[in-house]
Amino acid sequence: MKTAVIVFPGSNCDRDMAVALGRVTGQPATMVWHKDTALPAGLDMVAVPGGFSFGDYLRVGAIAAQSPIMRAVADFAARGGQVLGICNGWQVLIEAGLLPGALMRNATLKFVCRDVYLTPGAHNGPHPTLAGLPQVLRVPVAHHDGCFVADEEALDRIEGDGRVAFRYVDADGHAAPGANPNGSLRDIAGVLSENGRVLGMMPHPERLADDALGGSDGRLILDRLLIGQSGDATAPALPTAAATA
Amino acid sequence: MKARVTVTLKNGVLDPQGLAIAQALSGLGFEGVNGARQGKVIELDLAETDPDAARAQAEKMADKLLANAVIETFSVEIEA
User: Fold this and answer.
1) Which of A192, A202, A224, B14 has the greatest number of CB atoms lying within 10 Å of its CB?
2) Rounded CA gap, A148 and A107, in Å?
3) Min CA distance, A107 vs chain B (Å)?
4) H or E, element range at A226
5) How many CB atoms lie within 10 A of CB A43?
6) ipTM score of the complex?
């Protein structure tokens, strides 16, 4: 499987992401500089990593979203390609118009860096893209601008379409005060595109994808996205580009 | 020609920074601060010499990059 990681000036999770993707696929990920205009051919997934692209100038992700490579990423997504945006990567995908809503300064105004608990999916269950994952996953967050907002109508539409990828919960999988680290509306921690192939999320699966680092729940998410495995043999097959085109 | 683009959060969008500013002002003893909203100002130096054309240009820039229509609104002032 071929994966690529976009690198902007100020990206700082690009290497972690490349290592994590390489472990899942068994093949090194290709690093792609933001000034490039094309992605490698035959790509299975492109990841937009966390960090502080362009120093968060203007708005988080706003400048990076105008980088030449983002046109290629948008074309890839339009063809049904799989795109994963983590943290600043989600901010970039939103600013590029590939995902809805906006990400604003944390409600606490504080940078938050800690493990959080996630549950996959909307109230009626996980999106097929994330089916079969455990009900509760422990994954770290590290951000200053992770408060997801959208107007009520847009939120209802995202919920109605089952496109809430992850929600912040407590360790038992329930909504709870304090479980949501940034004030995101409806505890939303990640959102999927209409075809389910573009995923943006604030938590960092690549940072907890090896037991040597204290946990591997992040690996489960990457396994599911890349090779369709989730530890649950009854989970439906992963939607593919062909199936969603 | 100078264009001044003021970007502010839409009404109804929670502004925790504005809230903190209002609280700090109250803490300093300023009474009657009912609220504060934080925004940003971007001053553009444009080659365009026609005010209407400069305004149209600045508005296009604000639409495309300077403001995020999901959470922000903007206004443009032209200075000769």
Assistant:
1) A202
2) 10
3) 6
4) helix A217-227
5) 19
6) 0.86
Closest approach of A85 to chain B, Cα-based (Å): 19
| Number of CB pairs, chain A paired with chain B, less than 8 A apart | 33
Interface with chain B: mutation pick from A57, A58, A94, highest number of B CBs within 10 Å: A58
3-state secondary structure (DSSP) of residue B7: strand
Question: Predicted confidence band at B73 (pLDDT cuts at 50, 70, 90)?
Answer: very high
pTM: 0.92
How much is the mean pLDDT over chain A?
A: 93
Element (H, E) at A227: helix A217-227
| Interface contact B14-A107, CB threshold 8 A | yes
Torsion angles phi and psi, residue A58, rounded to 5? 70, -75
Tell me whether residue B12 is exposed, middle or buried, using C-beta atoms within 10 angstroms of its C-beta: 0 to 12, 13 to 18, 19 or more. Answer: exposed
What letter represents residue A12's amino acid?
A: N
Residue A30's DSSP bridge partners are A4
> Of chain B residues 2-31, which have a CB less than 8 A from chain A?
13-14, 16-17, 20
DSSP B17-38: HHHHHHHHHHHTT---------
Q: Is the pLDDT of residue A243 over 50?
A: no
The answer to whether A153 is a known catalytic residue is no
CA angle A9, A14, A20 (to 5 degrees): 175
Q: Which DSSP string do the residues of A72-88 spell out, in sequence order?
A: HHHHHHHTT-EEEEETH
Taking each helix axis as running N to C, give the angle between helix A217-227 and helix A14-25, from 0 to 180 degrees, rounded to the nearest 10. 60
- A187 at B interface, C-beta within 8 A: no
